[in-house]
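Review form for a predicted model. The reviewer records the input and the model, then writes brief findings.
Reviewer: anonymous (R2)
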Amino acid sequence: MEKRTYEAINEKIRTGEVVVVSAEEIVDMVKAKGIDEVFEQVDVVTTATFGPMCSSGAFLNFGHSDPPIRMEKITLNNVPVSGGLAAVDTFIGATEESITEGYEYGGAHVIYDLLRGKEVELHATGKGTDCYPNQEIRRKLRLEDLNEAYLYNPRNCYQNYNAAINTSNEHKFTYMGMLKKNRGNVNYATTGTLSPLLNDPYYRTIGMGTRIWFAGTQGYVAWEGTQFNSATHRDENGIPLGGGATLALVGNLKEMDPEYIRPAVFEGYGTSFSVGVGIPIPVLDKELLKQLAVSNDELFQNVVDYSVPRRSKPVVARVSYSELRSGSVEIDGKKIKTAPTSSLKKAREIAEKLKQAIKDGEFYLQEPIKIFTHNSSTKGMRE
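Model under review:
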């Protein structure tokens, strides 16, 4: 058997014969048994990540009041949300900050409160029209009161995000956490060998329509994520030397688990949103299995200087995920402490939950209906 199909794997899921392992487990299996033997044994590999993903948010529909209103200025718990979607739809961005509390409470907190069954206060105004005569509404509501509520996250699951360092003489407060002055620490953001797009670096199985485990429910890859950069330079394992690809994700907020969606506050920066994502990779052929078997020793990340106030920041070093996860890296002869902004513990939980759902016949694989491009590059604003 040289190739597998989605149909064959899904049939194995249906009959309870599917063999599923995590991306961490597959590395050890291939080392012990080799590519050929493992390919005959394993059908699916689960990948996962859990960490801050600022480019996230939720579409909500409140239903019509009586008399109806076209909402133009809207807040939820004093957090401004979009009034540009006509009558009673809105989009709440995770990083939007409270009018009264600043970044200590933001859009991520509102979404989290809704998910936990708490009441939030809606306040909306509009100019009033013949068809929407109401000009103001204020009421308490819960998630169950909404017609629709779904996460639509435009940029999640960065393929190989840079690690961060600060070479200046002052502490820097960033979305990568506090970076101590004079190379005092290195912070990094992904889960290494468990990270979804590091396991499928050329997007053979992750594309539009791919079914995913999304914060406790089944969701989908909706499109290429914003700032999708597939034309980046790559190493011998196909891993981007910089950020690489991202994913736009969609899923039903009403079905999600607050254990895998958490608001995050970064001092001096603002509100963010930690999201849990698991993506199954079908072992279609031996070439894909070789990419799934790449270890943390072989996965490298740029360490860039966040004290430089430019879009293109200088690369200070290039280090492996094994080094990052060891707790320290050596740069120019100096041993520097490392810390993740993502949770490997949560990612492992997600990979196991997805594995079990597949084994139990509760999660089937969906072949992408559109494969992502391999020549897309990011652009910055013109000066």
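Findings: DSSP finds eight helices and 24 strands in the chain.
Further findings: The longest strand covers residues 270-282.
Recommendation: see findings above.
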